[in-house]
Amino acid sequence: MSYITDYQYYENGGLVPEDANWGSYQYVGLDDIVNNFMLMYQGNNELINNVERYQVLFHAKRGIQELNYDAMKEIKILQLQVDSQLRFILPQDYVNWVRISEYTDGQVLRPLTENIQTNWSGAYLQDNEYKILFDIDGNVLKPKDSKLTIDRIAGTAPSIYPGGGAYSGELGYCVDGCWYFDYGIGTRFGLNTETANSNPTFSIDKRGGVINFSSGLESRFIVLEYVSDGMETGDDSSVSVNKMFEEFIYAYIKYSILNSKFGVQEYIVNRARKDKSSLLRNAKLRLSNIHPGRLLMNMRGQDKWMK
Fold first, then answer.
1. Is the distance from CB of 209 to CB of 88 less than 8 angstroms?
2. Which of 52, 168, 240, 283 has CB atoms 3.0–4.6 Å from 27's, for a disulfide?
3. What is the pLDDT of residues 94-118, one digit of tens each?
4. pTM (predicted TM-score)
5. Is the dihedral of CA 65, 70, 74, 78 positive or negative?
6. With pLDDT > 90 as the criterion, what percentage of the chain qualifies?
7. Across the strands, what pairs with 227?
8. Average pLDDT, rounded, for the chain
9. 75-81 β-sheet, strand order
10. What is the DSSP string of 25-46?
11. Three-class DSSP category at 6
C-alpha cells in the first residue's frame, strides 16, 4: 500500500465506498512484494539471478497461502440463510472452518456441534433384486436424494445427540400431574459426553461444497467463520499480506528458488531454509496478541473461592 493522505484514507478521496482504504496501511500488496523482490533480491550481484517474474509471482502466492493456513489466521465471517434442503453453500474461497453458529431470535450466536455421524450420502438406483441400475451409456442411475438425506430433512433420522432436553423422544407416564420417564441410555444415565449436545448439529460435505444441518434449522441464519487461502478468488490486485510477514515472504521466495535451482550448494539452501523458518517464528510471535491486559483479566479469578 503506497502512502496516501488522511483524506484519501478516511474518505477515499470523496469516492464510494468511503471505507475502501480503512486498515490498508498494515498490508503490503502482492504486486509490491514481487516488484521489491525483483529489485532488491535478484540480479547479477545477488545470490539469485536470471529468474523470471512469473517464477517470483508463483512462489509469492505459495508463501501467502502457507501463511493463511498456518500463521495469519485472518478469519472471514459469512452469514447465510439455510434453505429447505437444510444446506449452507460454502464460499468459493473456503479452506477450513473455525466456528459455525446459529444467529438466534434473541440476537445471540449459538455455537453448533459437528456431527460425528454421517447425515448425508449419495445413492444408486436398484431393482427389486437389489442390483444397481444403469443407463444406456453404462452410467449408474442415481436418485436426487438418498434415504439418509430425506430422513435428515424430514427430521426423522435417528441421532446419537440427545437434543431438545433430557426427556426428548422418551416414553413418559403422568401420575397425579407428575411426569415420570424411563432412563434413556445415552441421554441421562450413561451419558456420552462426546455427544452431550442439545443444539443442532452440522456435517461438512467438502466434495459437494455444502454444510448439511440437522432438522429444525430451515430458514434460520447461520454464521460461518472460516479460513481462506488469501488468493481473493484469483484477483492478484487484491492479494495482500500483513507487513509483519513481509520479510518472511521474501525469505520464502528466496528459499523456494534456491531449493529448485540446479547447481546451488547445499549449505546455501540450508541457510535460506533456516532464515525462512526463523522469520516465520518471529512473525508468529508478533501476531500472537499476547497483551498484559488480557492475561490480567484471565487471572482475576484465580483467588475466587469455590464452594
1. no
2. 240
3. 988 999 999 988 788 988 988 887 7
4. 0.73
5. positive
6. 36
7. 75, 96
8. 84
9. 75-81, 221-228, 94-103, 109-111
10. GGEEEHHHHHHHHHHHTBSTTS
11. helix
Give me the phi and psi of 105, to 5 degrees please. Answer: -65, -25
Burial of 251 (0-12, 13-18, 19+ CB in 10 A): buried
Measured between its terminal Cα atoms, the distance across the chain in Å is: 56
| DSSP-derived pairing of the beta strands 201-205 and 113-114 | parallel
Q: Are 2 and 25 in contact (CB under 8 A)?
A: no
Beta bridge partners of 188: none
DSSP conformation letters of 201-251: EEEEETTTTEEEE-TT-TT-EEEEEEEE-S-GGG-GGG-EEEGGGHHHHHH
Sign of CA dihedral 135, 138, 139, 145: positive
The grid coordinates of residue 247 equal 520479510
Q: What would the DSSP string read from start to end of 63-112?
A: HHHHHHHHT---EEEEEEE--TTSEEEPPTTEEEEEEEEEE-TTS-EEE-
> Do 84 and 61 touch, CB atoms closer than 8 A?
no
Report the alpha-carbon distance of residue 248 to residue 153 in Å, rounded.
48
- Find, among 24, 69, 70, 3, the residue nearest to 240 by Cα: 24
d(CA 49, CA 261): 11
How many Cβ atoms from other residues are within 10 Å of residue 80's Cβ?
15
